[in-house]
Design goal:
The protein is an alpha/beta fold. It has two domains: 7-116, RuBisCO large subunit, N-terminal domain (Alpha-Beta Plaits, 2-Layer Sandwich), CATH 3.30.70; 123-380, TIM Barrel (Alpha-Beta Barrel), CATH 3.20.20. The chain contains 14 helices and 13 strands. It has helices at 23-36, 50-55, 85-93, 111-116, 123-131, 150-162, 182-200, 214-227, 236-239, 241-249, 277-288, 306-317, 339-346, 365-380; strands spanning 12-20, 58-66, 69-77, 102-108, 138-143, 167-170, 205-207, 232-234, 257-259, 274-275, 292-293, 329-334, 351-354. The chain has a five-stranded mixed sheet with strand order 2-3-1-4-10. Helix 6 (150-162) packs parallel to helix 7 (182-200), helix 7 (182-200) runs parallel beside helix 8 and helix 11 runs parallel beside helix 12 (306-317). The longest helix is centred in the middle third of the chain and has 19 residues, at 182-200. The chain starts with 11 loop residues before the first strand and ends with a helix.
């Protein structure tokens, strides 16, 4: 295609990188990223004209944000995006991610680009309406440990649902193991939760883990909805964010989607490189179509701070074109003793993912769930 056939609208999206080193080093590396994040070619082979003037990245600003850390804000034409997560991630961090001392800190898209992305099918408001829980935080229980039979997991799901939790998800370790086949587990758990819901009069959504290669993932997701599952759990670090985005757009299956952070830790644990938690666990899942984004909250053994979690929650909730807000989570061995702290920090639009402490007494799982919810309701009562 010749220069004359290239047409650009002038609309651009911006990417903020944090770079370790002096300002001169940051300027030099930012100039390289303007090329590497687009045409990735030696400067002497880039023709003059439209490609050089409009297609390449452009440096908007460079400023110091910390000791030896500079923020470089680059812009790129929206014509480089195609509505897929793979292309967005490539254009924002594909080649930059191969470098040391560079972190993807923020990403800002115009409404036209956001409208191309899958986005959540339900979002927090529709998920609340589905569950008929208008105010308090949602509560999610987890089926574990790996090694239990399908019937044992169904019995546990039954107790959780009688405890009136809102969501019950598979642990991300559950797949299609010879000792716990996917189809049997999903069928038995969905039946057990439906039975408990008839007894309590409360809706509870079961989210089986459906990650896998694409044909298998789609088969599992379809089987899950046909079996009575009310949501789906995916690990986009394992499947790719486009698998999440494709499910969010399909007419069937058409269930709320929960994103789990498995296999994504190396992107954020080193604050000098990788992807900022707000982008990785907030913006990316929301654009891809997640309705709930799971990540470990602060105050645990994970290298994530209050400021990180504040940024994730903001990316889940802030205005984002036509993209509905989604739920962040208070996850990672969550105990009742942290309810006040978490509600004070996150507010009410959050999902509590219950920790294993709830199961210290196997005979009290049901009542322990109910007591957790009662504490939540008291915390948010006017």
């Amino acid at each position: 295609m010749s220069d004359q056939q290239l047409h650009f609208s002038g609309q651009r999206f911006s990417v903020e990188y944090h770079m370790q080193g002096t300002k001169e080093e940051a300027c030099r590396r930012a100039a390289v990223l303007c090329i590497d994040q687009t045409v990735e070619a030696a400067d002497h082979v880039i023709p003059s004209g439209v490609i050089r003037d409009q297609l390449l990245g452009q440096m908007l600003s460079i400023d110091r944000v910390g000791d030896g850390v500079h923020r470089a804000t680059l812009t790129f034409p929206i014509e480089l995006l195609d509505g897929t997560m793979g292309t967005l991630q490539h254009m924002s961090f594909g080649m930059a991610g191969l470098q040391s001392r560079v972190r993807l800190a923020n990403l800002s898209l115009p409404d036209e680009a956001i409208a191309q992305m899958p986005g959540p099918r339900f979002g927090s408001l529709k998920l609340r309406a589905l569950l008929e829980v208008p105010v308090r935080p949602l509560v999610c229980a987890v089926l574990k440990p790996l090694g239990l039979s399908a019937r044992a997991l169904a019995s546990l799901a039954y107790e959780f649902a009688l405890g009136e939790v809102d969501l019950i998800k598979d642990d991300q370790s559950l797949g299609d193991h010879p000792f716990c086949r996917f189809e049997e587990r999903v069928t038995l758990c969905a039946e057990a939760i439906a039975k408990a819901s008839r007894q309590t009069g409360r809706r509870c959504l079961y989210a089986p883990h459906v990650s896998g290669p694409w044909p298998t993932l789609l088969d599992r997701a379809s089987l899950a909805q046909n079996a009575g599952a009310g949501a789906l759990l995916l690990c986009p670090g394992l499947t790719g964010f486009d698998a999440l985005g494709t499910l969010a757009r399909l007419p069937f299956p058409s269930l709320p989607l929960i994103a789990h952070p498995d296999f994504q830790g190396s992107h954020f644990v080193n604050s000098a490189t990788g992807i900022a938690p707000a982008v990785l666990f907030g913006l990316f899942p929301r654009l891809a179509g997640a309705d709930v984004s799971i990540y470990p909250t602060f105050g645990l053994e994970y290298p994530i701070s209050q400021e990180d979690c504040r940024g994730i929650a903001a990316c889940c909730r802030n205005s984002l074109g036509a993209c509905a807000p989604i739920f962040p989570t208070a996850a990672g061995r969550m105990e009742a003793s942290r309810i006040h702290e978490m509600v004070a920090f996150y507010g009410t639009d959050v999902v509590f993912v219950l920790g294993s402490d709830l199961r210290r007494d196997p005979t009290r799982i049901r009542s322990a769930c109910q007591e957790f919810i009662q504490l939540l309701e008291a915390e948010v009562a006017p």
